[in-house]
Amino acid sequence: MHRSRVGVILIDHPQPRSASALAFWRAAVGGPPGSSDGATNGVYADLGWLNGVEFAFQHLGQGDPRLHLDLETDDVPAEVARLLRLGASVRTDHGEYAVLTDPDGVVFCVVPVQTGPARFRAGATTWSEAGADGADWWGWQRSWDAQQEVYLPDREQRFGALFDAVEAAVGTAPRVLDLAGGTGSISQRLLDRFPGASTVVLDADPALLRIAAHTVGRDDRVELVRADLRDRGWVNAAAGPFDAVLTATALHWLAEDRLAELYRELTGLVRPGGLFGNADHLPDSGLPGLTRRLGELAEHRREKAVRDGAAESWGDWWQRARDSAELADAVVERDVIFPGAWHDRGLPTHDRHLELLRSAGFAEAGLVWRGGADAAFAAIR
Ligand SMILES: C[S@@+](CC[C@H](N)C(=O)[O-])C[C@H]1O[C@@H](n2cnc3c(N)ncnc32)[C@H](O)[C@@H]1O
Fold first, then answer.
1. Whose CA is nearest to atom 4 of ligand 1?
2. Residue 347 and residue 228 in one domain
3. Which is nearest to 148 in space by CA: 180, 192, 193, 115?
4. Domain span holding position 327
5. Is 304 part of any domain?
6. 185 lines ligand 1 (CB under 6 A)
7. DSSP secondary-structure letter at 124?
8. 184 lines ligand 1 (CB under 6 A)
9. Residues 6+ positions from 162 with CB-CB distance below 8 Å
């Protein structure tokens, strides 16, 4: 398994005309403030950032002006091998990096991570070869994330807000319960950000846990536990204490009376001073009408994205899982555990959640993020 992303877009011009070409591009895009010619070791110059991708200029020794992409990766040989399988050719292999061409001759490079670990983490795609069972488990993980992002376009932002709260409350090496963690998306991101952390992914869904078992669950820092939050025995299965318990887009599946009990049960799992964080569909009690309309707006956008073929819907994703050799039996089992679709039965507001947490015994409870009809809150035990 390795990761890669488009890290740098470069405009290349041969010397000696490259100096005036650089001046042109600096003027055209506004150039980074404070730089003179911006040259780094006489070859490269910064032109700024495009949505987390570096925009740069390269002074070529010879050749024709061109644009080229740098694919940055945490494993250059594995990324080159993947691209060769897709039809690329190696033009020059420099060991640490390689110059390739696409099947029709366009030049691009495969390089080690250039843009810093945080940017790389945020944008990189994880690749794996099909396993002995022929299944592309990281492909399932990627498509799960893509499908969830249709429902929660700012999913990474809300995860980031929860991770900031974790770091501020309990530091950078926490033991975390990824509650109703599904395929382990939270755990994957948490471990990227906090290499000294460990997580328990707890969920009732055999299909999602099977994907987790072949992806994030292969990491020694991750334990997978199957338990149903509707059953009070889940607390023993989780095996606390934890520095933090995090959950996302899951607790709205529980009825409010069960939610109140669950919050009381959590006080026995989160250590004193530890944190509970939840990002979910959480109406704002001060804006009932607007929150509803914001929810409708988000739904229209989602439906359009699915209609336009830009995204896979929840239903389509599950149908694909149902039709696959590697997940079909687990989906049949899941259909028994979660019969029928979840219906909006009037979600508790974020205020109501905070009230329930305080009366369960949490010392502090408040919002750490809000967007549209959704929010993330944290509580300190
Ligand atoms: C929309 S998914 C979110 C998964 C994950 N937190 C994420 O953000 O990708 C909701 C998750 O809640 C889990 N879930 C719902 N009810 C549950 C229950 N009673 N016990 C355990 N897990 C449950 C589902 O199996 C599913 O994995």
1. 182
2. yes
3. 180
4. 137-286+323-380
5. no
6. yes
7. P
8. no
9. 186, 246, 248, 277, 279, 368, 369, 376, 378
Residue whose C-alpha is closest to residue 205's, from 303, 302, 342: 342
Residue 144 tokens, joined = 């799960």
Is the residue at 294 inside a domain? no
pLDDT tens, the chain, 381 aa long? 899 999 999 999 998 888 889 989 988 988 765 455 545 567 898 888 888 899 999 999 888 899 999 999 999 999 999 999 999 999 999 989 999 999 999 999 999 999 988 888 878 888 877 777 788 899 999 999 999 998 888 999 999 999 999 999 999 999 999 999 999 999 999 999 999 999 999 999 999 999 999 999 999 999 999 999 999 999 999 998 999 999 999 999 999 999 999 999 999 999 999 999 999 999 999 998 998 899 899 889 989 988 888 889 999 999 999 999 999 999 999 999 998 756 556 789 999 999 999 999 999 999 999 998 899 999 999
- 148 and 109 within one domain: no
Residue located nearest, by CA, to atom 19 of ligand 1: 229
Overall pTM surpassing 0.85 (yes/no): no
Among 127, 157, 176, identify where a domain stops: 127
**Is the shortest distance between the CB of 54 and ligand 1 below 6 Å?**
no
Look at strands 374-380 and 270-281 and give their pairing.
antiparallel
| C-alpha span between 85 and 77 (Å, rounded) | 12
**Does residue 168 belong to any structural domain of this protein?**
yes
Q: Indicate if ligand 1 lies below 6 Å from the C-beta of 230.
A: yes
Nearest CA to ligand 1 atom 13: 180
Q: Do residues 116 and 155 both lie within one domain?
A: no
Q: At which residue do the structure tokens 């944290």 appear?
A: 378
Segment holding 76, helix H or strand E:
helix 76-85
Say whether both 254 and 160 belong to one domain.
yes
| Sign of torsion over alpha carbons 20, 22, 28, 30 | negative
How many C-beta atoms lie closer than 10 Å to residue 375's C-beta?
23
Of the residues 205, 231, 256, 259, which should be mutated to test ligand 1's pocket, given the most ligand atoms within 8 Å of the CB? 205
